[in-house]
Every structure is written in structure tokens, then in C-alpha cells.
Amino acid sequence: MNGSFFFDKSKKTKTLNMWQKIWVSHIVGPTPNSHISIKPLLIPLFKGKKLRTLLHFPSMKAQNLGDETWNLIIANCRCLRALELNALNLKTIPRSIYKLKHLRYLDLTNNHGLKILPKSICKIQNLLVLKLDGCFQLEELPKKIENLVNLTHLAYRGCFGLTHMPRGIGKLTSLETLSRFVVDKDGSHDGADLSELSGLNNLREKLKIINLGFVKNAKEKFRAANLKEKQHLVSLVLKWNGGNDDDDKSLEDLQPHPNLKELCIRGWRGDAKFPSWLSLLTKLVDITIGCPSNFKHLPSFAKLPCLQQLKISNLTELECMDDNGPNGRQGITEPFFPSLKVLCLEYCQNMKSWWRTTEAIGDDSNEDDMTVMGTWTKAFPCLSSLEIENCPLTSMPLYPLLDDKLKLVNTSSRPLKQTMKMNITSRTPSSSTSSLPLSKLKSFHVENIEGLDTRILDKWLQHQTNRRCLSLFDLPNLTSLPDKMRCLTNLQMLHIQEIPQLKERCRKEIGTDWHKIAHNPDIRL
């Protein structure tokens, strides 16, 4: 039989990361206490009475595992501890699977046609890990799931067909992985409510709660979820997905533990107030707030010491980012987003100013204001990437130290113009030398920016020798390429689109502006 089995040296089992109690080694043939990886068609050819681990051999073409093969596995491999049968087009799992009573690890990922799991699977009381990721058509988790008393990892990412959670899931107090908690929209499935999250305080990594807009008795149920006791959670996603917009559904009642590092809120349509507990989440690294909501302004995120990524999108009612204005004519005099690396603002059509009050910012013609701007060197000291798209933002903190990516689409050019006028001090404490704003920027994408013409762009590009990627889209006032294009000696990609007046001027070899860009290795017109 040795020649019938396939040793897969490339398969570094990812199961070790998730379930460290199983050590899977691939060998040539079945021996006592063995672990093998095999093609499903060869399963009928062996008897593995003492086989502990069975992994199907990966192939380019998915294979269906028939009832006969299932019966052979169950009859001949009663000592199995780990069974991995992913991407095999499985549509059903036999009820007799409960006879694999020693099974601790079951991987059924990416079986796209699998809709239902047999109730009998809940009799495998030694099961520690159940993986169902990518089973898109899975309609529900098995009833009586509370009988899997030892279950620590229940993974079902990508199972978008799930309509509810089974009652009793809250009894699985050893759970460390729970991919998402789906609220039953209309109650027709007799699913679990949020109170079943109350005792699941060993949950780790990421938890998504879906359909919050459909929760009945929201104030009571939100508090019963007991999120503030889940100290091991790293990431929390709260999604409303429609439902009723009433004052009973308050974010204030979904307070997480202060250890949280990532927070995502999508589709909140209740009151326009942001919860007071945000200031307690001092370890937050990533904040995402998106989808239509009633937020008109947000609390200040500027003093969160660890925040590295902030993404705000589709907040159609949002008028400003921060309730508190800058400190008068002194500008920003204390650390402002001290750790922020990525800032993304998208589709907030009513947001015209960063602050509710903007006395510190005058119009572009006021040179004194430009002097004040130059003192705001504490703003965004670590910012690497800034994207502003479809937000008419005319005033905001300036960003002269930005050093990687700048993307501006259908927004005001005013903050950029002000930034380019600044004098900034070197980041190195021991140095007092000044450098030009945005001189270290590597990628610049500008699209549909009113008033951006050849003269202005020429001035901006004068000292941008580090630029590697430049994208110019839909700029009707750009009648020719600036002469300073020849200074971009490190440019690796130039992308020009929806600027018909440049088409002829940039024609290879013969265009009027070709000599300005001929040195670029990748030109896309």
C-alpha cells in the first residue's frame, strides 16, 4: 500500500495555528498512530484502524465524496482525531459521522454546496474545532449545538446564507473563535438572541454581530451581550443591516472592553450621538465607520495614542470630523493623531470642515494664516497614506509630513495648497533644518480637482523627486504637462486618464510633451 499514498511536503498545515494540540505529519503509509494525506479516490483501498489524522490530498479539480467513501471512513477509521475534507463539493454529511467519537478536529471548509449539517454531529462531544469557512450555502448551524461542550473554535467566515444562531450556543463557554453572531431578523427561525453572548467571555480575535437593527428590546439585549467583559477580543464589528431606527437601539449599551484594538461600525441609523465609551478605548489601533448613518459629527479621535488607521465612509449626514475646533490662532499645539498612519475619508458629501468651528483658518489670500499653518507641525506626525474622495473638505489639519500616498478625488484643493506653502521642521530632534512639504511622497493621485492647472502642478512637482507613481484624472484645466515632469527621475508609473487635451501632446515620439515623460518606464494613457 505504500505506493498508493502521497506525501505532500508543501502542505504546511495551518491547523497548527488554530488547534495546537494536533501535530500532523505526512507519511508514506498508514502505521499505528499515523497521520496521512491522501487522494479521496484512494480511501477505499486502505484500512486505518488506528489512523489518527486524515487529510485529503489537494488537487486542481474538486472531487465529490460519495456516500460509499464516507461509510468506509466511518467504518475503518474509528480512531480518527482529525479529519480534513475541504473543497470536495460535499452537499451532505452522513448522520453516522457521530460514530467518530474520538474526533477533535473537523474541517469542511469551501464545500460550497453544503446547506445543512446533521444534528448527530452534536454527539461528537470531544470535538474541539469545527471549520466551515467558505460554505456559502450553509443555511444554519446544527440544533443542539450546546452538546459540543468542549468546542473551542467554531469558524464559518463567508457563510452568508446563515439567518440566525441556534439556541444554546451561549452554553459553549469554552469558545475562543466565533466568526459572527447573526441576529434572527424576524424571529421566524426561533434563533438565539444577543443574551447568549453574555457568558462567552473567552472569545478571542474577531467578533462580528450582524443585523443589530432587528433586535427587539434592544436596550436590554444590547447590555445582556456583555461585550465589556470580553477582555480577549481584539476586533469588534457591529453591523445594523437595516431594521427599525428607534432610540431604544443605542450604541451606548454596546460598550466593549478597553482592551479592544479594532472597532468597525456600519449602518448605524439610530440617534446621532456617538457613545461616550470611545474615550476609554485607549488601545484602539483601527477605527472604521461606514454606510449611511445619522452621525452629524464625530467625537475627537485625535488623542487616541495608539490609533494607526481611521476610515470614514458613506456618512451622508456628517458635517464635521471633530466637535472641538483648533486652539484659536495658535493652531495645533499638542499631539494630534500621534500614531496615525492611514486616513481615509470617502463619500461624506456634507463634510466641508474638519472642525465645527474653524476660526483659525482664513481664506487663501491671508498670508498671516499661512504663517499660523506653518506652526502646526504636531499634526499627523506619522501619517503615510491620505485618501479624500467625494468630500467637499475645505479646511482640515495640514499634512506636510505625508510620505507615502496621497489620493484626492472630487474634493477641494485648498488644504493641499495650504500644505504646499508650509515650512516644516525636520522630524529628527537633533536637526533644526527645514524641508519642503510632501517632499518624500511616493504616490500622488489627483482627480477632478477644481482649479488645478499646469502652473500649479508645475510648482507642486518642483521638489518631488521621490515620486514613484503619478495619476492625473479628469483635470480640464490641465492644458499641458508641467516642465517639472522631467525632474521626476524616480517615477515608475505615470497614469493619465480622461484628459483628452493631453492625448496628442503625449503621443509617443512625436507629441509636444513626450520629451517630458519619455524617461518613465510605465506610461498609461
UniProtKB/TrEMBL annotation:
Keywords linked to the UniProt accession: Repeat
Extent of the signal sequence: none
Stretches assigned to the Disease resistance R13L4/SHOC-2-like LRR domain: 74-354
Xref: Pfam families: LRR_14
Gene3D superfamilies reported for this sequence: Ribonuclease Inhibitor
Coiled coil: none
Full protein name: Disease resistance protein RGA4
Organism lineage: Eukaryota, Viridiplantae, Streptophyta, Embryophyta, Tracheophyta
